[in-house]
Design a protein that fits this description.
NmrA-type_oxidoreductase, alpha/beta, single chain, Rossmann fold, NAD(P)H-binding protein, NAD(P)-bd_dom_sf, binds NADP nicotinamide-adenine-dinucleotide phosphate, six-stranded parallel β-sheet, globular
Length: 179
């Protein structure tokens, strides 16, 4: 069983690699990264893979069983980027894709961020490759960036009105992804 993780040099990806290393031998994990030098401390093999460079993807996905596709951080072009990966996965015979989507991506109209996730979910369904969609919620760390201002101003201000959200730390999403 070989598990490949694009975005492995990102904040979530690094945590996923760590969690996976506690569950499976490191030899079964492959980090797919834009800059292999940044992956030197991950403790697993690294292959170059850029969502915008399909020519890197076939080689990166060779003999990969499970692909944990971490959604790209480039909002706007990422549905196309993810499609490049899914198409390469189909070509190379990946047996399962796990994708980090967004909470209620299929039904929500509250955030434009959902549009690209919805497009990728549709591509996954059309691909014929068995898939698991992880509909991640908001990262708690998104709030921690604002703590300084909230402490200084004496209030934590948002625009959610009566809206409610249940956030979780990246480490929790990583634990779920690795499971
Ligand atoms: N739920 C939430 O609250 C929330 C918040 C922010 C983001 N997200 C989503 O969750 C993902 C992971 O979050 P994160 O905090 O780990 O983000 P992050 O630290 O910015 O990591 C994003 C990863 O995507 C990689 N990447 C970006 N463009 C790529 C490309 N063209 N080809 C290959 N890899 C590419 C980056 O590679 P490099 O290491 O080479 O830069 C990086 O490893 C984000 O990308 C975004 O889709 C969710």
């Amino acid at each position: 069983m070989t598990i490949a993780i694009p975005g492995a040099t990102g904040q979530l990806g690094r945590l996923v690699v760590d969690k996976l290393r506690a569950k499976v031998p490191a030899s079964e994990i492959i980090a797919l990264v834009r800059t292999p030098a940044k992956a030197a401390d991950l403790g697993v093999a690294a292959r170059e893979a850029d969502y915008t460079k399909p020519e890197t993807l076939d080689q990166a996905l060779t003999r990969v069983d499970t692909l944990l596709l971490v959604s790209s951080s480039e909002v706007g072009p990422r549905a196309v980027q993810h499609r490049n990966v899914i198409t390469a996965a189909k070509r190379t015979g990946v047996r399962r894709i796990v994708y980090t989507s967004l909470l209620r991506a299929d039904t929500t109209s509250l955030t434009s961020l959902a549009d690209e996730h919805r497009a990728t979910e549709a591509d996954l369904k059309a691909s014929g490759i068995p898939f698991t969609i992880l509909r991640n919620g908001w990262y708690t760390e998104n709030y921690t960036r604002s703590v300084g201002g909230a402490v200084a101003g004496g209030a934590f201000i948002g625009s959610a009105g009566e809206g409610m959200i249940s956030s979780a730390a990246r480490a929790d999403y990583a634990e779920a992804a690795s499971a």
